């Protein structure tokens, strides 16, 4: 029997049917090499807004999280949604609360996202002093801090320029699309003040992502005896997406496959590994297929 190596979820997400008609996305990149002096004092920060679905930080926040999740028409379009969503959330809350109790009493995603943002902005201050200081902000779709809270904080800080940076490497209307829709709705109503926005809406083939997966796989393969190493099957695990969404043209499946293909090419070209591999899907929610 072949051995298995499981590569962790390519995207942590809850994928359901989606409508993406109102998102306005624009890609913008700028680079600068070398280390320079620090940012000028008194200058408003360049905001780096980390977009994600979020998670309840405590057990008591589970119902709030689930109500927001089932209320999102981009994620789960339901008839009479404003009435049905709280009812579904209430029914599911006890089970989900127990699951969060089992992992320590809440999701660590806010803590990890803030720390990643802090370290990223430190690097940006060194790499791009012209746009420094950079300040990280977290905008979750279903848990605190919500988009409105984040925009309020940015307005208080006097932010004039911001980058909306999705934390989903592969684009889907039900994840990145939903977060951008919410950001557009709030910003178009004047929340956050007058801000010039740019967007990073996907990074499925970014060298950093591909190298991270490659390095982890090589490390895992090294644990196998040499005579079995080339036969170990590599499993890439990603959250599923209903076929009704895929058939409407959502690019998520294609972009996940592109990430997998890029990793396998890197393994073959750099490390000489040509192991068998599979892309597998997980976590169906609801009856949609």
Structure description:
This protein is of the alpha/beta class and 289 residues long. It is 40% helix and 15% strand. The protein contains nine helices and seven strands. It has helices spanning 62-71, 81-102, 109-127, 147-156, 176-188, 207-221, 226-229, 243-246, 252-271, and strands at 4-7, 46-52, 134-140, 161-166, 196-200, 233-239, 277-282. The strands form two sheets. The chain has a four-stranded parallel beta sheet with strand order 3-2-4-5, with helices on both faces. Strands 1-6-7 form a three-stranded parallel beta sheet, with helices on one face. Strand 4 (161-166), helix 5 (176-188) and strand 5 (196-200) form a beta-alpha-beta unit. The radius of gyration is 21 Å and the shape is globular. The model is unreliable at 12-19 and 21-39 (pLDDT under 50).
Helix-strand blueprint:
Layout: E1 4-7, E2 46-52, H1 62-71, H2 81-102, H3 109-127, E3 134-140, H4 147-156, E4 161-166, H5 176-188, E5 196-200, H6 207-221, H7 226-229, E6 233-239, H8 243-246, H9 252-271, E7 277-282
Parallel strand pairs: 1-6, 2-3, 2-4, 4-5, 6-7
Helix pairs in contact: 1-2, 6-9
């Amino acid at each position: 029997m072949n051995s298995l190596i499981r590569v962790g979820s390519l995207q942590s997400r809850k994928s359901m049917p989606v409508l993406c008609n109102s998102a306005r996305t624009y890609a913008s990149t700028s680079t600068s090499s070398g280390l320079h002096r620090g940012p000028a004092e008194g200058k408003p920060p360049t905001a780096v807004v980390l977009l994600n679905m979020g998670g309840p930080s405590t057990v008591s926040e589970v119902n709030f999280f689930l109500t927001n999740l089932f209320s999102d028409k981009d994620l789960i379009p339901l008839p009479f949604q404003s009435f049905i969503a709280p009812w579904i959330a209430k029914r599911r809350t006890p089970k989900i609360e127990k699951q969060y109790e089992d992992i320590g009493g809440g999701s660590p995603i806010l803590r990890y996202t803030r720390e990643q943002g802090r370290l990223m902005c430190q690097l940006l201050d060194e790499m791009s002093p012209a746009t420094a200081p950079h300040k990280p902000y977290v905008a979750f779709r279903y848990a605190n801090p919500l988009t409105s809270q984040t925009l309020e904080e940015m307005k208080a800080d006097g932010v004039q320029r911001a980058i909306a940076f999705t934390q989903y490497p592969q684009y889907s209307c039900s994840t990145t699309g939903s977060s951008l829709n919410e950001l557009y709705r709030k910003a178009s109503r004047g929340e956050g003040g007058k801000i010039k926005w740019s967007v990073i809406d996907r990074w499925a083939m970014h060298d950093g992502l591909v190298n991270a997966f490659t390095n982890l796989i090589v490390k895992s393969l090294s644990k196998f005896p040499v005579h079995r190493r080339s036969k170990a099957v590599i499993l890439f695990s990603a959250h599923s997406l209903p076929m009704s969404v895929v058939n409407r043209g959502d690019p998520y499946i294609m972009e996940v496959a592109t990430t997998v293909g890029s990793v396998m090419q890197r393994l073959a070209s750099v490390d000489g590994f040509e192991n068998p591999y599979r892309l597998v899907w997980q976590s169906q929610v609801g009856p949609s297929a």
